[in-house]
Design goal:
about 110 residues; four-stranded antiparallel beta sheet; 4 strands; about 35% helix; globular
Length: about 110
Amino acid sequence: MFNPVDQGGSPTPAEGVDEHAVRRRGRSLSGEYRGLYEYLERRYANTVVITFAQMEDLLGFALPDRARTDREWWTAQVTSTAEPSPSNAWTLTGRTATPNLLARNVVFDRASG
Protein backbone atom coordinates (compact mmCIF):
# COMPACT_ATOMS: atom_id res chain seq x y z
CA MET A 1 0.00 0.00 0.00
CA PHE A 2 1.24 3.49 -0.74
CA ASN A 3 1.63 6.48 1.54
CA PRO A 4 0.77 9.72 -0.32
CA VAL A 5 2.02 13.01 1.03
CA ASP A 6 -0.53 14.72 3.28
CA GLN A 7 -0.09 18.34 4.29
CA GLY A 8 -2.34 20.57 6.33
CA GLY A 9 -4.82 20.36 9.15
CA SER A 10 -8.31 19.15 9.85
CA PRO A 11 -11.13 20.56 7.74
CA THR A 12 -14.00 22.46 9.28
CA PRO A 13 -17.41 21.08 8.25
CA ALA A 14 -19.58 23.56 6.39
CA GLU A 15 -22.50 24.87 8.40
CA GLY A 16 -25.82 23.20 7.66
CA VAL A 17 -24.29 20.41 5.55
CA ASP A 18 -25.53 16.87 6.19
CA GLU A 19 -22.14 15.16 6.04
CA HIS A 20 -23.67 11.67 6.05
CA ALA A 21 -25.86 12.46 3.04
CA VAL A 22 -22.87 13.89 1.16
CA ARG A 23 -20.83 10.75 1.91
CA ARG A 24 -23.64 8.42 0.77
CA ARG A 25 -24.06 10.46 -2.40
CA GLY A 26 -20.31 10.47 -3.00
CA ARG A 27 -20.07 6.70 -2.69
CA SER A 28 -22.86 6.20 -5.21
CA LEU A 29 -21.84 8.90 -7.70
CA SER A 30 -18.12 8.24 -7.80
CA GLY A 31 -18.72 4.96 -9.67
CA GLU A 32 -15.60 3.01 -10.54
CA TYR A 33 -13.50 5.77 -8.93
CA ARG A 34 -15.13 5.07 -5.56
CA GLY A 35 -11.80 3.87 -4.10
CA LEU A 36 -10.27 7.28 -4.78
CA TYR A 37 -13.34 9.01 -3.32
CA GLU A 38 -13.12 6.94 -0.13
CA TYR A 39 -9.37 7.50 0.17
CA LEU A 40 -9.71 11.29 -0.19
CA GLU A 41 -12.74 11.36 2.11
CA ARG A 42 -10.63 9.81 4.88
CA ARG A 43 -7.76 12.30 4.55
CA TYR A 44 -7.90 15.20 6.94
CA ALA A 45 -5.01 17.02 5.29
CA ASN A 46 -5.86 20.01 3.14
CA THR A 47 -3.45 18.79 0.45
CA VAL A 48 -2.98 15.21 -0.74
CA VAL A 49 -0.47 14.30 -3.47
CA ILE A 50 -0.91 10.98 -5.28
CA THR A 51 1.15 9.61 -8.19
CA PHE A 52 -0.64 8.04 -11.13
CA ALA A 53 0.83 4.64 -10.17
CA GLN A 54 -0.41 4.99 -6.57
CA MET A 55 -3.85 5.97 -7.83
CA GLU A 56 -3.97 2.95 -10.12
CA ASP A 57 -3.02 0.70 -7.18
CA LEU A 58 -5.82 2.28 -5.17
CA LEU A 59 -8.37 1.91 -7.98
CA GLY A 60 -7.30 -1.51 -9.22
CA PHE A 61 -7.18 -0.44 -12.87
CA ALA A 62 -5.13 1.80 -15.19
CA LEU A 63 -6.08 5.43 -15.63
CA PRO A 64 -7.31 6.28 -19.13
CA ASP A 65 -4.70 7.60 -21.56
CA ARG A 66 -6.39 11.00 -21.55
CA ALA A 67 -5.76 11.32 -17.77
CA ARG A 68 -2.02 11.05 -18.50
CA THR A 69 -1.94 13.55 -21.36
CA ASP A 70 -4.75 16.08 -20.91
CA ARG A 71 -4.94 18.44 -17.90
CA GLU A 72 -8.58 19.12 -18.73
CA TRP A 73 -9.48 15.51 -17.85
CA TRP A 74 -8.67 16.47 -14.25
CA THR A 75 -9.86 20.07 -14.23
CA ALA A 76 -12.99 20.17 -16.43
CA GLN A 77 -16.15 21.24 -14.64
CA VAL A 78 -18.77 18.49 -14.63
CA THR A 79 -22.08 19.92 -15.81
CA SER A 80 -24.18 17.11 -14.34
CA THR A 81 -23.64 15.11 -11.18
CA ALA A 82 -26.56 12.79 -11.96
CA GLU A 83 -24.20 10.23 -13.52
CA PRO A 84 -20.92 8.88 -12.14
CA SER A 85 -17.89 10.83 -13.34
CA PRO A 86 -14.22 10.45 -12.41
CA SER A 87 -14.19 14.01 -11.08
CA ASN A 88 -16.94 13.12 -8.57
CA ALA A 89 -14.25 11.22 -6.68
CA TRP A 90 -12.60 14.48 -5.67
CA THR A 91 -15.29 17.14 -6.09
CA LEU A 92 -17.68 15.34 -3.74
CA THR A 93 -14.94 15.37 -1.08
CA GLY A 94 -14.62 19.16 -1.52
CA ARG A 95 -11.32 19.03 -3.40
CA THR A 96 -9.86 20.33 -6.61
CA ALA A 97 -7.38 18.37 -8.73
CA THR A 98 -4.18 19.88 -10.12
CA PRO A 99 -2.30 17.41 -12.29
CA ASN A 100 1.42 17.54 -12.99
CA LEU A 101 1.55 15.45 -16.14
CA LEU A 102 5.36 15.47 -16.33
CA ALA A 103 5.75 14.32 -12.72
CA ARG A 104 2.83 11.90 -13.20
CA ASN A 105 1.00 12.97 -10.05
CA VAL A 106 -2.05 14.92 -8.94
CA VAL A 107 -2.41 17.38 -6.07
CA PHE A 108 -5.84 17.28 -4.48
CA ASP A 109 -6.45 20.47 -2.52
CA ARG A 110 -9.38 21.03 -0.20
CA ALA A 111 -11.46 23.79 -1.74
CA SER A 112 -11.65 26.86 0.46
CA GLY A 113 -15.04 28.18 1.12
